[in-house]
Amino acid sequence: MKISIKRYHATRQPPSITQSFEIEEGVTLLEALQSIKAREDATLTFRAGCRSGVCGSCAVRVNGREVLACAYKPKEGDLVEPLRNEAVVKDLVVDQKEAFATLPRARAWLQAYDEAAVVTPEEEKRTEIQSDCILCHSCYSACPVLETLPEFLGPFALTRAWRYVADPREADPKSHIDAVQHAGVWDCTLCGECTAVCPQGIDPKGDITLLRTKSAQYGYLDPNMQSFGSFGLDF
Ligand code: SF4
Ligand code: SF4
Ligand code: FES
């Protein structure tokens, strides 16, 4: 069976090429990549760790859809590419620096600990799923907004921000809400691509909707609606 891999090397001419490789049937994409590297081309570059869907490091795109290479079984003619919305370093490896920087921008951790807070099992359930995020960047790659607004906080930082807004132990939920107003909750188009590709079943789109509701409770307005309003008055 044959698959194609989009390869990139900054100093090669041209830097980007698509190469075809013969692979064994029934193996995972990660096993196929490892076999190509061991037997055919030692320069093939990709990222992987746990080989069992836990570390999130092996995410790539296959035929335009984000998958974990260690969990995906290739099919004849598949095209394997690096994730989008992050600069390619080499072949299937992207530079994750900018995407990771969205976490501190969204204040995606506990800001003030309320020691008196009691967490019920129901409340714990509400924030459990977001804690399963393996930071694979699949949702970040699938998000169409990042193509036109690179400073957008993106789905995994926003879903993690919601996790702490909804946590009863957070004594300062507003600090998260304040942090996600610029290039954040209101810039999402609610297309749902992030939710569709998440290997952990997390729903960033749903969490962004909840962040919007909470933002409104703190007095924030959708800036797009505000401009419609002033347009109406001027007209
Ligand atoms: S729902 Fe929002 S965050 Fe998710 S992919 Fe669409 S635009 Fe991006
Ligand atoms: S929310 Fe899902 S798709 Fe996004 S980084 Fe976390 S695990 Fe990956
Ligand atoms: S190698 Fe860890 S998730 Fe695939």
Can you tell me about this structure?
The chain is built from 11 helices and 7 strands. The protein is an alpha+beta fold. It has 2 domains: 2-94, Ubiquitin-like (UB roll), CATH 3.10.20.30; 97-224, Orthogonal Bundle (Fumarate Reductase Iron-sulfur Protein, Chain B, domain 2). The strands form 2 sheets. A 5-stranded mixed sheet has the order 2-1-5-3-4. Strands 6-7 form a two-stranded antiparallel ribbon. Strand 3 and strand 4 form a beta hairpin. Helix 7 (155-165) packs antiparallel against helix 8 and helix 7 crosses helix 10. The chain is elongated, with a radius of gyration of 20 Å. The N and C termini lie far apart (62 Å). FE2/S2 (inorganic) cluster (FES) binds at residues 48-51, 53-58, 68, 70. One iron/sulfur cluster binds at residues 142-145, 155, 188-194, 204-205, 208.
**Global geometry:** elongated
How many H/I helices?
11
Class inferred from helices and paired strands: alpha+beta
Q: Pick out the low-confidence regions.
A: none
Average residue pLDDT = 95
CATH topology of the largest domain: Fumarate Reductase Iron-sulfur Protein, Chain B, domain 2
Count structural domains.
2
Instruction: List the helices and strands in order.
Output: EEHEEEEEHHHHHHHHHH
What small molecules does this complex bind? iron/sulfur cluster, FE2/S2 (inorganic) cluster
Give the strand tally.
7
Distance between the termini: 62 Å
Keywords:
binds iron/sulfur cluster; 7 strands; 235 residues; Ubiquitin-like (UB roll); 11 helices; two-stranded antiparallel ribbon; 2 domains; Fumarate Reductase Iron-sulfur Protein, Chain B, domain 2; 5-stranded mixed sheet; single chain; alpha+beta; binds FE2/S2 (inorganic) cluster
